[in-house]
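Sync notes, pocket subgroup
Present: LS, DG
LS reminded everyone that the earlier model was apo-only. Rerun requested with S-adenosylmethionine included. Inputs:
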Amino acid sequence: MSFKEDGVVRHYASVDLLPRILAGIEQAGIDPESLTSDQLKAVDEFHIGGAEATAHLLDKLTIDQRTRVLDIGSGIGGPARTIASRYRCEVTGIDLTPAYVDTATELTRRCGLSDKVRFDVASATALPFASACFDLATMFHVGMNIPDKTTLFAETRRVLSPKGMFAVYDVMHVGQGDPAYPLPWSETPEFSALATPETYRSAASSAGFELLGETDRRGVALAFFERVQAQASANGPAPLGLHLLMGPTVGEKVKNMVSAIKAGMIAPVQMIFKAPAS
Ligand SMILES: C[S@@+](CC[C@H](N)C(=O)[O-])C[C@H]1O[C@@H](n2cnc3c(N)ncnc32)[C@H](O)[C@@H]1O
C-alpha cells in the first residue's frame, strides 16, 4: 500500500463504525438483526444526495438480473446493496479500508443479501479480478482519494467487458481556488486528490472510454445540504445519518464543503462512460 493509500485508510478507519451504526439502528426503533437495504439509506450512501443521487445515476443505465456489477470504493455497501435489491443482480464491492469492508459485509448479512453482494479489500488501481469479468462499474465519491486517475480508468477498463459501462459520481474541482479543509474525504490537502472534470475525461479517453454524458449536480447538492440542515435544526441529529461516518470534525467538514460548492470551486459531477467494443 502506498503512503497516500495508507493515509486514506487511516482517515476512514478513524471512526468506530459498526457499533455506532448498530446503536443508531436501535435508536431508530429498527430490529438490527433483520434489516432491509432501504432502512439503512440515511447512513450507508456516503455521497452528496445519498440514495436520491444513487437512483439518479442508476436510472441512466441499463441493468438487469444478468448484469455483473463492480462497485469501486464501496464504503459500507449502500450503493452495492441498492443495486442488488433493485435489479436482483450480483454485485461485487471493493474498498481500500478493511473496517469499511467488514461493516459492509456485516450489514449485508443482516439485510439477507449475502448471496447477491460480496465485498473485498482492494485498491481501485490494482483490481484483483480477471479481465472482462464485469459489465458495469460504478464509483460514488471515491476518485477524490485516488491521485492516479490514469491507472484507475485503465484498471476499470481492463475488468469491463466490451461495451461495458463505467458510471462515476465524484466531487470535482470545477472552478478557481482551493477549498478549506477538513473535507469529508480528507482532513488535509495531502490525502485529497480532487481533480478537474478534464482530468477525468482525459484519463478515461486514454483508457479507450467514450464519454456518453456529463452532468454537474451542484444545484442538487445545495438543496440536499439545506434539507439536511433544516432537519437537524428542527429535530437535532437523526439517529441514522452520514454524521456517524465523519467523526468529531463533521461540522467543519460539511461547512467547508458547502462553502466551496457555493463559491463554485467544487461540485459533484456525474459522468457515464462506455468501454470500446473490443
Ligand atoms: C466517501 S466514501 C464513499 C463510499 C461509497 N462509495 C458510498 O458512496 O457510500 C469513499 C470510499 O472510497 C474508499 N477508497 C478511497 N480510495 C480508494 C482506493 N484507492 N481504492 C478503493 N477504495 C478506495 C474509501 O475507503 C471509502 O470507503
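DG: The radius of gyration is 18 Å.
LS: Residues 212 and 232 are 38 Å apart (CA to CA).
Action: DG to write up.
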